[in-house]
Amino acid sequence: MSRVVRLSLHLFLAAAPACARQAPPPPPLPADSVAALRNELLPPAATQGDLALLDRAFRALHPAVYRYNTPATWAGRVDSLRQWFATPRTRGEAYLAFARLTASLQCSHTYMSFWNQPGAVHRWLTDGADKIPFEYALAPGDRWVVNRSSVAAVLPGDTVLAVNGVPTDRIVARLLPYVRGDGPDDGKRRALLDFRHRKRYEAIDVFLPLLLPPVDGRYAVTLRRGGRDTTFQVTAMAAAERRAHAQPVPPDRPPHELAIEGDVAILRVDAFDYGRDEGKWAPFVTATFDTLRRRGVRTLILDLRENEGGSDDGARLLLQHLVRTPVVMPPVRRYVAYDTVPRALRPHLRTWDDAFYDRRGTVRPRGDGTFDLGDGAEWPASIPVADNAFTGRVIVLTSYVNSSASHVMLRLLARRPGVTLVGDTTGGSLRASTGGNLFFLTLPGTGMEVDLPLIAYDWGMANPPGGVPPDIAVPAAEALGVALREARR
């Protein structure tokens, strides 16, 4: 057996300095208190006012409102929701309504962000003890296969068939219209409906208690184990409590890791984000490819299955080490919907760069009401080959998780000599997406927040709306085994 070499890079993505003491999270609200807050009625003046503000802001500032909608369909959705809001609605109903409206843009960066909600909203939306007490992987047929559990009655390997009497495939079908994703393909949305990312806020934890809340603090769970189906009650709990007590404990793996055995290497890259350790990424990439050359590696398996994107610079740096000839970017337009933010909208917006409010002098009118951005594209027209680029065969593992920067990188790698994509279609759209700059729009009547992307990237509407297809299509969970067989063939 050849000696295995491993290089790893731990990236800490929290914004706070390493030496800062994190304040402990507030104790979770019990399920009945969460329900009381969630079910508090909001008057029509609050919800309709917020809807009017969102509509004005999106039509004035969002560059891709009409990428998958027409002005008539968007106006129809807004008008229908305005009429629905004519009756008092609960906080939970309002959040769901706004989430469904923003998801209808089919833009993965436009949503009622779980991370950016004000503290008062977090208390009833994400922090309460009303979550399911187990984690699962979404299997074919929208089955829930348990992989970690905080209660003795549910074991890893169990298949959950129904919650509160509703089959899991019907639950997923009900959830999909509320989940963000680029284009009409639901692969990315399904990827966000399980626990693969191990993030603080999971989509299922946000939406399930709103659509199918626990009854008296408990969920009725029907599961299959050993050919037998059983229904019983489990106590709901806070997501933080579930993470702390779920078994088995997942391995503490870094988000980037290289393993070499013989002449085959596996490089796993779960994110291109830098966080506060941004200076470590470039040295890690350099050391990795120096090691590949020194060890005589002939096949590199690049595992991007858990990579949702992140830093364009990070993705571009890795790409330069994977290609044999310079990469010429396909024609892409970058544009915004405005040159200056209307005065009436400014009090409701926040962001990290005041230059986003006034772009006059840096944009050019396109003649259709939108504005081309000047120089400074995130992806240059030509990407050179790195001095120590890999010259062997590259097999890339893909999944529906891939979007944003990872989707762009895979689009540029696809069909290149010496590169094979194995797995699922990516979760992005070949018509491109939005991102780059963001406004955070606060809705004063409900106290909720909406992520509003400002830059549209356009590869052309003639492209299909789906993602990058693999060369070898297999479920993402099976991609590594297939890649290893390909490498040793």
Features:
single chain; 7-stranded mixed sheet; globular; alpha+beta; 489 residues
Give a verbal description of the structure:
With 489 residues, the protein is α+β, with helices and mostly antiparallel strands. Helices cover 27% and strands 23% of the residues. The chain is built from 13 helices and 23 strands. The chain has helices at 31-38, 44-61, 71-84, 91-103, 119-125, 168-175, 187-191, 203-211, 239-245, 281-294, 312-320, 404-413, 479-488; strands at 5-9, 41-42, 89-90, 134-139, 143-149, 159-163, 166-167, 218-225, 228-235, 256-261, 264-269, 299-303, 327-328, 333-336, 349-350, 363-365, 371-373, 382-383, 393-398, 419-423, 434-443, 448-458, 472-473. It has a 7-stranded mixed beta sheet with strand order 1-10-11-12-19-20-23, with helices on both faces. Strands 4, 5, 6, 7, 8 and 9 form a 6-stranded antiparallel beta sheet that branches. Strand 10 (256-261) and strand 11 (264-269) form a beta hairpin. Helix 11 (312-320) runs parallel beside helix 12 (404-413).
